[in-house]
Fold these 2 entries.
Entry 1:
Amino acid sequence: MKLEIGNFYVNEIAFGDELSFKDGVLTINKEEALAMVKEDDRITEAELYIVKPGDEVRLCPVKEAIEPRVRLDGKGLFPGYTSPLRQSGNGVLHALKNCSVLVVGRHWGGFQDGLIDMSGPGQKHTYFGGLNNIVLVADTNEEFERYEQQKKNDALRRAGHKLAEFIGQCVKELTPEDTDVYETTPITKRSAEVNALPALVAVLQPQSQMEALGYNDLVYGWDMNKYLPTLMSPQEILDGALVSGSFMPCSSKWSTYDFQNYPILRALMDEDGKDYNFLGVIMANLNVAMDQKERAIQFIVQTATELGADFALVTEEGYGNPDADYVGAIAALETAGIKVVGVANECTGRDGASQPLVTLDEKIHAMVSTGNVSELIELPPMKVVLGELEALGRDGNSGGWEGDEVLGPSVRPDGSIIMEDNGLFCGDMTVGWSHKTMKDF
Amino acid sequence: MSKKAIIYVNQFFGQLGGEDTAGVGPSIHEGLIGPAMAYNAQLKDCDVTHTIICGDNYMGSNPEDAVAQILGFLENLEFDIFIAGPAFNAGRYGVACGTICKAVKDRFGVPVITSMNQENPGMEMFRKDIIIMKGGNIASKMRKDLAAVVKVANKMLAGEQVGPAAEEGYFPTGRRHQVFIEEDATTRFMRMLHARIAGEEFVSELIVPKLDRVPIAAPVKDLKQAKVALLTTGGIVPVDNPDRIQSASATRWGKYDITGMERLESGVFKTIHAGFDPAAANADPNVIMPIDVLRAMEKEGVFGSLHQYFYSTVGTGTTEKEASRMAKEILPLLQADNVDACIMVST
């Protein structure tokens, strides 16, 4: 499999007459873009904004992030979701780097939505605080879930994906500044030297715990709740086979942008063939019932064993209940003789005194910790709020609250906020961007 | 304006004498005695105003009274920090430093700090409550240990955040928090992966403590002949608590004769456990230590006989280390009395 990603580095985004990219400046015709967004008649209200690092802007409730891209073969970016099925992982695509499309609810948020600050002490808490962002702020007529804590956010998420595809078109005919090539040889066709190396698999556990459909991560458009682990190429993930869902406290989530750019997967590919043979990704999921968890773990271990894996990455998109899937997979792989390095965040409570993962196992030998979901974070007011800050306290956001006897409300009259890490948009960056770790105090 | 510190030391460092004065009660002195001089010299923008001295045995035998007296001394004093020790590996002194620091912190809400050796029993007892610097084992480490205390104390006085345990040199308090670091997770992951592949040393960012699993005992062969003993962590003791078992973070246990008793009477026995509402247990101690039911079963011949002693301690806040030590002290006594089976009543 060979995937080439041509990079166009965005230094500035502006509104103008014509969608174009020139000398690092991405220009968007706002009316044209909004007209495209409003083609979905569920969208009742939409506006576009441009934000860059350093702007005194707070975004809330953020629902999704997508990197604008285009495939040179003209096929859709997210097969099975916003376009017909195709095989991901092969071919050439062009990507607008340092840049994302963010989708923000005009009014209403929920459990799964997040917050981004573009400057100040909150900026470092999300990856997107450091990017140039095109922000779609919109509302929909999805009355059935307007006041629900758990929202599918279907219209808004799809609007974001379509907008990212729309914007990506402007670099289709241009020559990229540089190109990343991700090429792999089928497992049994690799050289004798490579086959002699210790073999490695990456076990990814995307979020799929909502029994009702429409909330979970999608693989080729398929709801991952109704799914069992299978072998995939890392290039498929980088090329739109996975789409982020709308369930789980936000700081533990992987946005679609995270899947498109998965830093740990890219690092594993970069060093493939040196001191390990990267066999591929066992794309798993996260489940609710114990037998579902055990069944998925059985598939993971059997696949890894049959492939002859010696080492594994295991990482989960979530915390709490899914820790059982994560720790279970690690322990079962270690029992099978496959040595694991895990990557996850922890939940040690506001006081830091709780058990870090819901289940622990002595077979966890090596783990990278990327943050504490319940850490309390206090942030000063921002001059501009895109969306509706009240959503943080009002709509059941996992990191916010309406009122607290000791801490007061999450959203204060002066616009300053106090919240748990939980509510920061993809803030714990378990995909590999996290500059946070956990330490004993 | 410079801040104020108060120092706690034992009879030896308070220059009252050695073991012969260990029974002396608390006293407060204006000015600097023993280590207080060095603290006064090294604390930044902070004067040591008083030194409190208490004999280790007095604090050990009369902790409630000693603490009450000392809190009384402090009631009308202004101070910004309370420092005890260093206590090195002196067990009674370490427990005293922990006891008084925790009490002062709870009452006055000011920063407190002490220093002990890792072998000092006071460390496990109090490390979750207060900051205890990792100290040397003997008094010749005074300069080093005191300087370590001062370094963190100065941060506390300046209102700065005290950093992670490993970086600041104190015993982990059982709390984990996120911190921002230079390296991203990808870099850390790749390094850990390479180390695992190469079989080299690495440090996991989450260390899962080894669980001390005890295998489940074999069934009692013949219950009808068995001598059964009752043990509890529910703190049931004779009303005068003759063994002075602590109400939390216990290090002591007691052995009590129940010869001739059909049940434990209220007013004769009570609970000293601080982890639950004692009303029900004080009204009827048998709800925790079910002598009444076991006597009835003994009569029915369900088992051979009830052992003439029960054993009791308090489980709340008690460390695994202390609990296992107490068990090792109790076990030989049970064996010597030919006890066949134990019922461990928890709360």
Entry 2:
Amino acid sequence: MNKGFLLTILAGLLPLTLLAGEYDISVDRVQIDTGDFVKEGIGYNGASPGPVLRFQEGEEVTINVTNNLDEMTSIHWHGLILPFEQDGVPGISFPGIKPGETFTYKFPVVQNGTYWFHSHSGFQEPNGAYGAIVIEPEGREPFRYDREYVVQLTDKHPHSGDRIMRNLKMSADYYNRQQQTVGDFFSESAEKGFMVTLMDRMMWGDMRMMKADIEDVQGFTGLINGKGPEQNWLGLFKPGERVRLRFINSSAMTYFDIRIPGLEMTVVQADGNNVQPVNVDEFRIGVAETYDVIVHIKDEEAYTIFAESMGRSGYARGTLAPEDGMTAEVPELRQAPLLTMADMGGHMDHGGMDHGDMNEDDMAGMDSGDMAMGAEVDHGAMGHGSMDHGDDASLPEDPFYAKGSGLVPTASNGGKFLSYSDLKAQKPLYEDREPTREIELRLTGNMERYEWSINGTKYEDADPIVLQYGERVRFKFVNETMMTHPMHLHGMWSILEVGEGKWNPLKHVISVAPATTVYMETEVDAPGEWAFHCHLSYHAASGMFRKIVVEGGPDSTVAEGKLSGKQGGES
Amino acid sequence: MNPTLKIAALPALVLAFASGAHAAGSHGGGHHGGNVIGEPGNAGNVSRTVEVTMRDNYYEPESIHVQRGETIRFKVTNEGGLVHEFNIGTADMHEAHQDEMQMMVEHGVLKGDHIDHEMMNMDMGNGHSMKHDDPNSVLMEPGESREIIWKFTNATDLEFACNVPGHYQAGMYGDIKIDSTVAAKDGAEGESDSESVQ
């Protein structure tokens, strides 16, 4: 690392020299101490998380990755645009890195912003194999700041990834601690009537789903830069400074709702791409997404960075303070949301309501009488205990959630919560044009067997998706499950449809909420073979994964030669 | 945005603008005496011209020195890809004006690189409009260039700022440093005095 850094600095002093840096990374067994528990895991250069790799836009990087494990490994450079052989997905980009071997990645850095890297082998990433990438831009950025910090989140679990996968396969609700109990049933019956409550439970039972089923894997400790809530990661500042925070969600499974009580945040970047700045009080970061925010801290106070998991089963916490030892109040976790009938969307059509013994009177007694219509709001099922049922005006709305969804986030101070619809590119990268064709991808699953799939087919049984170099493909995600899926396309940008034409933002992860349809477009400008998958570790591993083959292009022999190949990528 | 929705929302917007201007005093020149921030200047009194370039999302230069009592012609050019504003005021005034600009965005008057002038200048029949024609500010689409002639009186703590939502917070503002002791000199303060930029 040091050597590489020196080279980079030298290159900066000699403008005629090509920028080139060399970096060494070792993949090691490490101890991970969360403050709640100590666990053996995998890290880089002796630690988890690994180092922050600092590249310069325009630099040609050489990265030597040495595998000190007794198993295969790999590093995927998440969000980086690079030749597909350098993308680090075993079975798709390359065979992987054997124990004891050193693999040398070499690629030009053609972008700037906040990204990250992680193993794409087995469950090494949830076991600790991740780090951050910061790429300095060639020119001036459309914002300014006095100092910056990487704030890398994860959901460290006391169980290893393999064990979690086994337990989920055995019982999908193994780690779901917030299931509704018999006690809940009786108290709800008293409140809403027995039949209403019974119907509600029967429908959810039919779907093999539970209302509380927002987080498959609870029982984790949220970490910021490797530190648990008690260990309290600290970022120092001087009063009056503008501080850039580079949030990266490296969790296996957990979405976080992030706020810094007392500070407004200005979102300036999403997934490494500049967005037109937007002021928010709170934002939700999907698994594998990044958001850069700027905070202007005027006084000599400490502030808590508070990241609650979307299902409120855990949190990460850090502190911004003018000096070491200062802390601010740590908020209580808010009440866990419950999924509503709106979140089950399409399930209504599949026989979930087919209870012939219900009579009209019973239906009329339900304040969710409109649920037979399909995707209407079920007020009775809204999980926010304090919410007054039946008052439409009080329901928060966001076009990226089903209408009446229990997952729609609200800011804890009543202020602005970032929506995908607020994201507009600062400067469009591609010319806006009509897509050449549309590909529908239904996000599907069977919760009981813990099988996740696309269009009902698991990865191992699916043919690759074949794209032609030069086309612009419109992907239509239809989420038929009740989980939120962060879909990640490797190698090419995902242009999120927010209805703003050329200002639609570029991302590398598109989060698709339950019972919603979300569109993204991709300029197919990278030949080769790429991975495309849900970034929830245990969803990807159980089948919500595809290989993308891009045919044609400047180096057309590459793609054609491998077209007939079996899919064999590891997630 | 749906056009019907847009029209329906207009009265609320106008109302908010009217009350916002009175309460918060964001529009300096006309409404509440020029003393707070200075006053519109006469072309005949201009001592020098300061050229200001607006980019995405910052100014060149990022701070400006003036003499008390000096009248300056600001030649402002938007070389960015987005709509930007050059507005002379105090930090509080800018903050109040940002709420109004937020409404302009929410109602579709302001969209990325475009200003809906027709909608902005629409006479609502009660003397109010969303016109953005105060003498202390210019709001411009990419490629536009305009002038402000401004006389700095006894004002202190002035900033020039872009109040397009998010731009101020991203760092698109600069200090106007008013000097009352030394005789006026030519030219704007260059980058040498600007805040640190990364």
